[in-house]
Amino acid sequence: MRIMVVMRRNTANQIIASLATVLLCVGVGLAESSGPLDGQIASTSQPTTQPADTTVLVRLGDRAVIRQADVDLALINDRPERFDNIKESVVNRLVDDRIWDLYLLDHPDLVNDEDIERQIQNQLTRLRLKTVADLETMLRERGGITLDEHRQRLRRRLAFSRIGQGGMDQGKNDEDLQAIYDANPDHFNSTLVSARQIIIRSPWWDTPQQKEEKKQKLEKIRMDLVSGARTWDECMAESDIKLPNGGRMNSFKRYEISEELAKVAFELEPGQYSPVLETRLGFHLMQITHRKQGTNRLPNPQVKSQIMAYLQNRAKQQAIDSVLSKAPIIGVQPPRMPEFMRQALATRPAETQPAIDRSDVLNSEEPVVEPEVDPLGP
Question: What does the alpha-carbon distance between residue 116 and residue 227 come to, in Å, rounded to a whole number?
Fold first, then answer.
């Protein structure tokens, strides 16, 4: 799992929007029974009729779970027609939240209660509210969350911001920046690589067996390509994401794709195939089609900004890895449509107008600036 999963948001449309499974902000907090656990995780063998609050979808080791009830809560203000399109994004967000909750449990001094109360007071001032009770009412009416859930969201975001700032602090002087550049020149010199890829989707709720089967499917495709048994176009028909022009990606720089893909793509020569690679989107097979060596160097301001972004993301990724090393993500079963959505479909008049599209909320990014955290934002 990576902070920059496939593409930076501001270049995704130019490179390949359909590859991006970004850190989506669904605006949910912890369900009471679904956060970090003191006891045992519920059984992974669960009938579809099992209550939502005991139906486990994803486990993080033996420390936390995502339950059907969490998905139900995240979708409470959404419309049933969107369920199939957004369920993976919702589960991704819930997994991300649990990871940061666990990190905060392991590092309780990173964000304290005084930090949160200071944020609350700043929000009261900005929103021209008189009391915390007024804020609580606003959160409930407009955001559908409790004050406790909001405080936990603030805690996660402050942690996210402070860890990133700690990473950037490692590049405070020119000597540090030059050393980082010299160790990783292709990260920052604007070298461009073009590739095409085949993707087999594998969401977090896939079981270990399902993931292995999907990986082996792509391994077989790779063997066929290397041996010449099948052409790229023939194999592309098996891709779960049908990218245009035979799966071709526009040229990209190293920092524009996830490290899982970049560390391989930038080591290959044109014509070579990557091994099967895994990201949170699923399994990838790339063939490099073109490479143009970059020449940018320090003190170019663009290079400096790229190094700072690299340090920021590296620090965040190290925090995530520290959690996943002790609490690996294990899929159990896919989410089902919440009962309230099923009932809405069954009782909705034929001419009912669709609900307001909340895709702007679901596709917003994590903030990284500490002083301003919108209480009603994503």
Answer: 59
Residue 52 neighbours by CB under 8 Å, 6+ apart: 67, 68, 69, 71, 72, 338, 339
Regarding whether 198 and 157 lie in a shared domain, the answer is no
DSSP codes joined into one string, 191-243: -EEEEEEEEEE--TTS-HHHHHHHHHHHHHHHHHHHHTSS-HHHHHTT-SS--
- Evaluate whether residue 298 is within a structural domain: no
Residues 157 and 46 in one domain: yes
The label of the residue with tokens 């020449």 reads 295
Residue 198: closest CA among 165, 168, 234, 167: 234
Can you say how many angstroms the Cα of residue 102 is from the centroid of all Cα atoms in its chain?
16
CA atoms within 13 A on the CB side of 129: 17
Q: Is the pLDDT of residue 318 over 60?
A: yes
- Say if strands 329-331 and 282-292 run parallel, antiparallel, or are unpaired: unpaired
Beta strand ranges found along the chain (DSSP E): 56-60, 64-67, 192-201, 248-252, 277-279, 282-292, 329-331
Which of the given ranges, 169-173, 181-185, 331-335, has the highest pLDDT on average? 331-335
Q: Is the dihedral angle over the CA atoms 366, 368, 370, 371 positive or is it negative?
A: negative
Q: Which residues contact 377 (CB under 8 A, 6 or more apart)?
A: 25, 27, 364, 367
Quickly list DSSP for 255-304. Answer: GGS-HHHHHHHTTSPTTPBPPPEEETTEEEEEEEEEEE-----TT-HHHH
Residue 187 has pLDDT above 90, yes or no: no
Structure-token pair, residue 185:
């020149």
Would you state the pLDDT for residue 350?
58
248-252 sheet: strands from edge to edge: 248-252, 192-201, 282-292, 277-279
- What's the CATH code of the domain at 255? 3.10.50.40
Mean pLDDT of the chain: 82
What's the DSSP call for residue 165? H
| Structural domains counted in the chain | 2
C-alpha span between 106 and 100 (Å, rounded): 10
